[in-house]
Amino acid sequence: MTSKFDRHRRLRSSAAMRSLVRENHVRVEDLIYPLFVVEGQNIKEQIPSMPGVYHFSLDRLAEEMKEIAAAGIKSVLMFGVPEHKDACGSEAYNDQAITQQAIRQIKEAYPEMIVIADTCLCQYTDHGHCGVLHEGQVVNDETLKLLAQTAVSQAKAGADIIAPSNMMDGFVIAIREGLDEAGFAHIPIMSYAVKYASAFYGPFRDAAHSTPQYGDRKSYQMDPANAREGLLEAESDIKEGADFLIVKPGLAFMDMVLRLRENFHVPIVAYNVSAEYSMVKAAAANGWIDEEQIVMETLVGFKRAGADLIITYHAKDVAKWLAR
What we know:
The protein is of the alpha/beta class. The chain has one domain (24-323): Alpha-Beta Barrel (TIM Barrel). Helices cover 39% and strands 17% of the residues. It has 11 helices and 12 strands. A hairpin with a 7-residue loop joins β2 (44-46) and β3 (54-57). α2 crosses α3 (98-109), α3 (98-109) runs parallel beside α4 (140-157) and α8 (254-263) runs parallel beside α10. The chain is globular.
C-alpha cells in the first residue's frame, strides 16, 4: 500500500541514527562556571541553598580550579564576596580586593582560562543595591562612574571579559569608554542585557550576600511580563559596544533567548540561574527526577533557542557527563 502520510520515525530508529541527525549539541566549550570567592583562610563552605556550590577562600581556590580545568571547562565567571562593605561599594574597584586577587591568581595558574568578571556593586554595598543611593533611590549616572572604575580594576587584574550585571541606563557605554581610555580597548563586554527582576535569584543572593537591605530592584531590573522592552535594552547595549548579550534568568525566559538570536548577530548567553539549579538538585535528592536527563534537556533547550554559551552551576557535572 502506498503511504499517505510522512514517516518521520525513520530518522529516530536507533541511537546512532538519532545522533546522526541531531540538530543541537551541548559542548563543554559552551559552558561558563560561576565561582564565589570570600576573604579568610581555609574556607570551603557549601552554600546551603545551592548543593554542590561553595564559597572558597583564596588558599582553597586552587583545588577548585584544578577540578574545573581537569573537566575541560574553559571559562569561569567570578563573584567576590568582601568582608568590608560600604555605601558606595568601594571594594568593587579596589585593585587589592578579593575579586581582583582571585582573577590574578587564576590567570597566573591557568593563563588560557577565560576569566569573566561580574561587574556590579550589589555584593560590595552595605545596602545591597546595585548602585549609589540618594534618598533611598539608586542614582544612575553617579553609579556609572563607579562601574567604569570597577571594570578597569578588573581588567588590570587580568579579566578577559567584563560582564556588567547592574542594569543601569548607559552602563555599557560608560564601561566601554572607561576601558578604552585605560588602554583596554581589546577587552570585550558581556552585557547582562536582558535581566529580569526575578524570584529565581534567591539562592544566588545567599551565595553573594547581596540581598537588598530594604526595597527591591524593580526600578532598574526588568519587569518579567515584558518582552519588547528586552529588545530595546539589547539594542541599546549593542549600540553602546556590547560584544555578547546575556538573558537572565534563562529557563523561564527562553523566548528572549530566541528573540535576541533572531535580531542580533553577537554571541547570545543564557544564564541558568541559581533557583533553576537548586530546584533540580532538590527534586533529584528526593528521587523525583533523573538529574542528568533534566539538566541536559534544559541545556539543549537553551541551545535550540539560540544560545551560543550557557552560564550554569551544573557545568562541572555536565562536563563529566559529556566526557563519559
